[in-house]
Amino acid sequence: MANSYPKAENLSEGEKAYPLKVWVCEKCLLAQLEDFETPEAIFSDYAYFSSVSSGWVEHARRYAWMMIDRFGFDENSLVVEVASNDGYLLQHFSARGIPVLGIEPAANIARHANEEKGIETLVRFFGSQTARMLHADGRGADLLIGNNVLAHVPDIKDFVRGVKIALKPSGIFTFEFPHLMRLIDGNQYDTIYHEHFSYLSLLSVDKIFARYGLEIFDVEELPTHGGSLRIIGKHAGYDSELHRPTGRVAELREREISFGLAEMGTYRAFAERSKAAKRDLLTFLIDVNERGESVVCYGAAAKGVTLMNFCGLGTDMIDYVVDKSPHKQDRYIPGANVAIHPPSKIFETRPDYVMILPWNISDEVRSEMSGIREWGGRFVVPIPNVRVFE
Domains in the chain, ordered, with CATH? Predict the structure, then answer.
């Protein structure tokens, strides 16, 4: 499991491994994993705190201000975020005097949001049952947000049914998720891991939301996570000047079809490119190690855990991994059993190469860690292919 970082005393106990294979429905085009582990086991005690990435917090701030300006949310509105993590996003609405409510299944993270940021956060999974509870309490959402959660739910139908129940008649929902078209185009095989039950396109989510009487009226393409979509929607049949469909939905739908997302051959070709990328990375690391040079990794992100396990990387090729999050430090990469240290470790050991595993924030990392140039250290980014930055 990508975010289950063992401690030193647990390494001898062995770790449970699961198959990792994506299936694609030829009818609705939903790409989805088989269900091997429950959400409770994955998310109830979680190691990822969104506020660790300053770039992600700034992305959330820009989103909040854009939504306020575009749709006029104010002190009479209620903004509800599903999988609200540590309050990284809702804090920006709260700072503007807008009531907020977070829903977060990881108790350790929800506690941080409540106590450190003052964001009311319920420790629950979201679905039709939670939505009915909110509706009964008169807490319907004027804005219902879900950033990087739609792909994380095994029962996506019950989740969207919950959106229908929790949203006020005039309410708006927005969801951000990695775009399947960008995942395939960018050879981002490392973003396929067990927390991501689904791999989503506009073609697939449009069908799911329409099934429950919800309509996507706008879509934005974002650079986050290697290329994401932000869908904006409402109850089907509700009409106002602010809810009028834009042309971007139809335009993107046609582009996805032209790209080949409705053709099974596109997915098979992606699988073969992933294997080729693995071989190229291994060739690079073998050459570096045979020259007697050292390689460490920056960022114990889930995508990095996936890449290391898919490519079979261990301490024979990687000296150690660093991560800014204290919740991951002094632990180990699951499966690979490579130690995780604070970033300061790099300046103590002065490695020849620093491979950035969360490549989606590589610019941020290269800026923060630019000091490796003092001894001629170089950055490596492994996705979509191996690139070395002098």
Answer: 13-262 (3.40.50.150), 281-389 (3.40.50.720)
